Amino acid sequence: MPELPEVEVTRLSFADRIAGARIESVRLGKPLRWPAGLPANGLAGRVVQAVRRRGKYLLLDLDEGLLLLHLGMSGSLSFAARQPAAGVHDHFDLATTRGVLRLNDPRRFGAVVYAHSEDSAEAVKLLGGLGVEPLTEAFGLDAFHAGLKRRHAPVKQVLLAGDLVVGVGNIYASEALFMAGIRPTLRASRISRPRAEKLRLAVRDVLARAVAKGGSTLRDFSNADGQAGYFQLEAMVYDRAGQPCRVCGTPVKSIRQGQRATYFCPHCQKS
DNA sequence: AAAAGCCCCTGGATGC
DNA sequence: TGCATCCAGGGGCTTT
Questions:
Q1: Where are the domains of chain A?
Q2: A46-105: per-residue pLDDT in tens?
Q3: I want to staple A245 with a disulfide (CB 3.0 to 4.6 A). Which of A2, A40, A204, A265 is the partner?
Q4: What is the pLDDT of residue A219?
Q5: Are A92 and A141 in contact (CB under 8 A)?
Q6: Strand A48-54's sheet: what is its strand order?
Q7: Is A3 annotated as catalytic?
Q8: Which residues pair with A53 in a beta bridge?
Q9: Which class does domain A141-264 fall in?
Q10: pTM exceeds 0.85 for this model
Q11: Mean pLDDT of A102-131
């Protein structure tokens, strides 16, 4: 489910409401990707000051310490004054004076990790290797092109890796490469500067448009208010194998790269 | 250093 | 209906 747009849409849907809330209690369900590492005396009494996003992580800033949340493949958050009794896939509840923040994650690839500070070992382990934020001014052509230059892997997989630029997952990698007219199998190092610029702008554009549409809901994504996203309806190639390209009519092709599906138009993305 | 493969986990879709 | 197989939006870890 969650790539940058879905995580950002989730953040926007509850950040203002939870800011200023005092934590009352924490409930943990089944183990997630990593141990939560909560302080021995819990989090009760701490105040949620803000919700930020770094890549696909949400950072809940507390008056002391912070919580790192990751939605994995199947996670979603909900924030409501009252929550129903926890179901089998509800693995984290943060009860606060303003409502309960709940993580539902059937596959449990997600994570909730407490860190004393953003510079602590626990936080650096998760955030340290992340690339530049694509929707900020820091995402410039010089560094992006230079980064592509030194990678020989297929450009699709370089986008997914997240160490050059964060937030681009399997849907938006295919979509951005389509917009840029670049074949996903092209070695990153072979991308010219003008084409790198096309790709940079395409990444920014597709992610920004997806945020505006509430993200993509393929099966079960919803924001913290329970609302689905609609960007999947605008997908040019993702999950459209065999269907006509929306630009030229050529059947969209599906291949596998690194155990993940990639979609592209053989005509619009010739090289 | 970088790339390729494997693995974590559950559930839905498909095929026999 | 039952069962096996494959696939899914992520990404860390190990091996080449």
A1: 4-127, 141-264
A2: 999 999 999 999 999 999 999 999 999 999 999 999 999 999 999 999 999 999 999 999
A3: A265
A4: 84
A5: no
A6: A48-54, A57-62, A66-70, A111-115
A7: yes
A8: A58
A9: mainly alpha
A10: yes
A11: 97
Buried b (16+ CB within 10 A) or exposed e, A213-237: bbbbbeeebbbbeeeebebbeebbb
- pLDDT tens track for A175-186: 999 999 999 999
Residue pLDDT, tens place only, A4-40? 999 999 999 999 999 999 999 999 999 999 999 999 9
Give me the residues near strand C, CB below 7 A: A 1-3, 6, 33, 55-56, 70, 72-73, 107, 109, 126, 129, 160, 162, 169-171, 216-221, 259-261
> What pLDDT does A220 receive?
82
Which positions of strand B lie within 7 Å of protein CB atoms?
Answer: 1-12
Name the closest residue (CA) to the C1' of nucleotide C8. Answer: A73
The Cα–Cα gap between A35 and A214 comes to 30
Give the active site residue among A11, A46, A53, A56. A56
Residue A175 bears catalytic tag: no
Active-site option among A3, A6, A122, A175: A3
Bridge-partner residues for A263, per DSSP? Answer: A254
Which amino acid is present at A271? S
* CATH code 3.40.50.12780 for A4-127: no
Give strand letter and number of the nucleotide nearest A161 (CA to C1'): C11
CB-contacted nucleotides of strand C (7 Å): 7-12
A259 touches strand B (CB under 7 A): yes
Q: Quick check: is A2 catalytic?
A: yes
Q: CA A219 – C1' C7 distance (Å)?
A: 13
